[in-house]
Design brief:
- The protein is built from nine helices and 16 strands.
- Strand 1, helix 2 and strand 2 form a beta-alpha-beta unit.
- The protein is about 30% helix and about 25% strand.
- The protein folds into two domains: about 220 residues, Rossmann fold; about 100 residues, GMP Synthetase, Chain A, domain 3, CATH 3.30.300.30.
- The protein is globular.
- By secondary structure, the protein is of the alpha/beta class.
- Helix 1 packs across helix 2.
- It starts with a helix and ends in a 5-residue tail after the last helix.
- It has a five-stranded mixed β-sheet. Strands 8-9-10-11 form a four-stranded antiparallel β-sheet, with no helix packed on it.
Length: about 325
């Protein structure tokens, strides 16, 4: 990401009406500054508008609410798991009395969570779609003509969206397609050689799938990539698989994401360890991951299996594993 891209996104966000931030706002800074949402969308936005930022060292559901109350925070940018933590908090609306706007980003927030929070507090929740490569904000429901359940909003001023099918052409009818983005906020390519950046016309393929309605509002459908998003943080399955493969006795491993009520998604590891006691090898994997991986990257559950489904070329069929997890979430499996 260049300074040009970061500054461009700050100006694009500043052009949104109604504005996300004013100069007299007090903004909660609970999102980590090593994440682009906290770094540019929050800290950068505060500096751009000369607002006040209240930095929080770590998120605690009750203590953070008390801080919002004490400091009279008016804008509260958070990630979706926060809403789950606050469901059991008493006097939620009282603690948030000075808040005029809650912003949710870094992962999808369910329509049900938005409806519950707004009913409980009377405070509007606006969310958007973004990526690190876009500095990060691409869309916002503040840019929409009206509230639409499931929508992540319309494109920011100065940002263009389009959908393409697998041939690179617009999808037929109302079919979803891969989301492409164009704007001055895009990165220049991946380090170290600038590879896989925007094409010659400035369009960049996100790897996400969605559809646009007649008003230009974006609805996310799925991800082409296998990225797992835990509490708004990116987890690359190959990184987790490489670490688990270091454990003696593990012959093969496949890591996927599964739905989680608190963190949005959770990491699940399926591993093959012939001759090993399942409980012993699972514990060994947990201990090794605890030493080698950040907490949000560690598997929430480990499944020791007799075999992994594979294609004729030997590639693990992760789609079948996701199908198992979907059935498990529906209560069709123990």
């Amino acid at each position: 990401l260049t300074h040009r891209a970061l500054l461009a996104n700050l100006e694009q966000v500043a052009d949104v009406e109604p504005p996300m931030m004013h100069g007299d706002d007090v903004v909660l800074g609970v999102l980590p500054l090593f994440h682009v949402y906290g770094l540019n969308a929050v800290l950068g936005g505060v500096l751009r508008h000369r607002a006040r930022l209240v930095l929080v060292e770590r998120f605690d559901p009750h203590e953070t609410l008390s801080l919002i109350d004490d400091e009279a925070c008016s804008v509260v940018p958070v990630a979706p798991p926060v809403f789950a933590y606050w469901r059991t908090e008493e006097d939620l609306a009282v603690h948030l009395g000075a808040v005029r706007l809650v912003l949710s980003g870094s992962a999808p927030l369910s329509a049900e969570a938005v409806e519950w929070f707004t009913a409980a507090t009377g405070i509007p929740v606006h969310q958007g779609y973004g990526l690190t490569e876009a500095s990060p904000v691409v869309t916002s429901t503040l840019c929409s003509s009206g509230a639409k359940p499931g929508s992540v909003g319309a494109a920011l001023p100065g940002v263009e969206l389009r959908l393409v099918d697998e041939t690179g052409h617009p999808p037929e009818g109302e079919d979803p397609g891969e989301i492409q983005v164009r704007g001055a906020n895009l990165f220049s390519g991946y380090w170290p050689d600038g590879d896989a950046g925007p094409d010659d016309e400035g369009w960049w393929s996100t790897g996400d799938v969605g559809f646009l309605d007649e008003d230009g509002d974006l609805f996310l459908v799925d991800r082409l990539k296998e990225l797992v998003i835990v509490s708004g943080f990116n987890v690359y399955p190959t990184e987790v698989e490489d670490v688990i493969s270091e454990v003696e006795g593990v012959e093969d491993v496949a890591v996927i994401g599964t739905d989680d009520d608190e963190t949005g998604e959770a990491v699940v590891a399926y591993l093959l360890a012939p001759g090993a006691d399942p409980a012993t090898i699972a514990e060994a994997v947990r201990e090794h991951c605890a030493a080698r991986l950040a907490r949000f990257k560690r598997p929430a559950r480990i499944e020791v299996v007799d075999e992994l489904p594979k294609t004729v070329t030997g590639k693990v069929q992760k789609g079948r594993l996701r199908g198992i997890e979907r059935r498990r979430n529906l209560g069709l499996l123990e």
